[in-house]
Amino acid sequence: MIRSVIAGVGAYLPDNVVTNAELAKKVDTSDEWIRERTGIRQRHIAKEGERTSDLAVEASRRALLASGIDAGELDLIVCATTTPDQTFPATATAIQARLGMIRGAAFDVQAVCSGFIYGMAVADNFIKTGMAKTVLLVGAETMSRLLDWNDRTTCVLFGDGAGAVVLQAAEGDGTNHDRGVLNTKIYSDGRLSHLLYVDGGPSTTGTTGHLRMEGKEVFRHAVTNISASIVASANEAGIPVSEIDWFVPHQANQRILDGTARKLGIDSAKVVSTVAQHGNTSAASVPLALATAVADGRIKKGQLILLEAMGGGFTWGASLIRW
Ligand code: UT7
Hints:
Elements lengths: L1 E11 L4 E3 H4 L7 H8 L3 E3 L7 H16 L8 E5 L10 H9 L5 E5 L5 H14 L5 E9 L9 H4 L4 E12 L8 E9 L7 E3 L12 E3 L1 H23 L8 E4 L4 H11 L10 H4 L6 H11 L8 E8 L3 E8 L1
Parallel strand pairs: 4-5, 4-6, 11-12
Antiparallel strand pairs: 1-7, 2-3, 6-7, 8-13, 9-10, 12-13
Helix pairs in contact: 3-4, 7-8
The structure holds oxa(dethia)-CoA (UT7).
Oxa(dethia)-CoA (UT7) binds next to α2, α6, α7 and β12.
């Protein structure tokens, strides 16, 4: 059986760091409120002129370097983003050009904060079916461009950044002892789109629009949906949730991470959290957290890693990987 093994991980954050205290000078909020309600202490914000593809290319170069794979060996680039450089072409094609990849294909996946999990399903299936051997999967966002900086209920929550992984085909024996992606579960419920959306777009207002969210409602669904997808992924692999070594969640709110861990009886020491440093970077948040835990040596070869996310749509899902 063909498995998709992660050969390298990379991350990139814009230099510009904005702390809660700095934000409180421009927005009617406080460091205390943001920390208590979300766990966020700071976020990185792209400078004027800095594009999603700029962050993505840097993260991708680092992932390629870590994997020892040349851009010319890639068959496919999948970029998960909600904040493309332009409405079209796909940001993935800008990444392709700048990495010097002149063969294969490149396209974007749009599933908002769950984009990286959706992208993992796409990349893994391309590899499993033999359509690609080597895939670059990037989650990259400049969420700061979608924020209404007069809406304190949303603008304090998000940040910019990018994370990338290189996946490569490898032979496995089809058991859950194989290295690589064991399964990816993805879900959506379009009836709930009004709870988290952008109030603009090419076919409606003709403008980019701003992010709008019913935070409390999203929170309620997040814990339920994320927990269900973790259980579904673990059950499909025949692995008890307690045997998973590391949980790498979407970083929306520390209280969501804690609530999910409590609900499933997960030791919170196994949950990778970067929400304090990065805020919510949408599709970039899972690979940024993954890159952090790989770089600091927490994630080790052979361990079981569970990635999960929930976002606008609603979309949600989980991916179980043996590192
Ligand atoms: O990435 C996609 C998924 N997104 C999420 O998962 C986000 C999920 N939701 C959340 O994380 C939380 O619901 C929030 C962090 C957005 C809000 O936390 P909350 O505990 O649900 O607060 P709330 O919306 O109920 O607001 C409580 C109070 C309100 O004041 P009143 O009505 O009680 O007087 C708000 O007006 O806090 C006020 N408030 C603020 N105060 C200071 C809202 N935003 C702010 C702010 N600074 N930035």
